[in-house]
């Protein structure tokens, strides 16, 4: 049996997962903010006539 060294351990808090969650929440909040501003300025949620 050959020993290949210690087994890798996973970090307790994954920094990239936290950054992904923060970025997602920021994007959702910014989308809601822009939708509210468009509603106030143009009277509808989507200002373009699509």
| Count of β-strands | 0
Strand content: under 5%
Unreliable residue runs = none
Instruction: Summarize the helix and strand pattern as letters.
Output: H
- Number of helical segments? 1
Radius of gyration over alpha carbons? Answer: 23 Å
Helices and strands in order:
Elements: H1 15-42
Could you characterize what this model shows?
This protein is mainly α and 50 residues long. The protein has one helix at residues 15-42.
Summarize the structure in short.
With 50 residues, the chain is mostly helical.
Supply the key terms.
50 residues, 1 helix
